[in-house]
Amino acid sequence: MTQTLLRKTLAATATVAAVLLAATVLAPPRGHAQTPSPTIPIGLDDAARSALGYVIAPVPLNLKGKNPSQLAQIGLGSYFVNAIGDCNGCHTSGGPPNFNYAANHNPYFLSQLPTMVDPTTYLGGGADFGPALPFNVPPGTAYGSYVGPDMIARNLTPNKNGLPEGGMSLAQFTQILRTGIDMDHIHPTCTSPTGGPGGTPTPANCIPPPVNGAVLQVMPWPVFHNLSDSDIAAIYQYLSVIPCIDNKTGTPPAGAPNELRNDCGNGTPPPSKYLHGGDSVPQDPLSRQLRRAH
Prior knowledge:
By secondary structure, the chain is mainly α.
């Protein structure tokens, strides 16, 4: 993130921090004791995370028309996605050698510039994780050497209507993280080893038992299902304001044809609608603190 973008991004955090300061200081204590932070005042945990979320967001955000409450959610969602979940580590559309990192900014290589995510591949999907059945089924079973199609990471960017993951509602997105359900039904469980064309397994792109093709594979939804409703909503709000990556004509290798489809319509909103911030740097204590840290 450039210094200009950082200064401008921090300008947006002033409002977020001010709104959450009043809310969190007056909020009732949580269900267990928390260890006071030596640098972040007690009661500012969500405000600090929200502000930091804007600092670490690797792409410009379309914040036009968002109210202070929504801005607070978006910052917190960025914190979950970029500081905790490492969602882009799996859902990048980048490939080797740098994958989700920009060229010459790969922290795993020698003689690199400071770490930087490649914004052109951010959460666009396409990473190939191989088959969900990563071993040949035992000899003599009905499916023989067939292990099913490769699992391809989905595109999480919003569609032309601003709905994340190519058009999921908040209710659908919540259900996905709670239950792992594959709303696209891309890789169903096989029902027959020879019922398809030419005696192939059926239905098409199926995964042999015992894998449950009705739920997302690889995706760590059994862990994410522990998130609170408000946490999931924050992630959803953040994913709705990142740039759309349009790959409606792409077909991933060894995957079903609709796996990565996402229609941005008339394209990504022009840069003027994105948060590039103002010229002033906010001087509230939280923003000063984050600025020193980054």
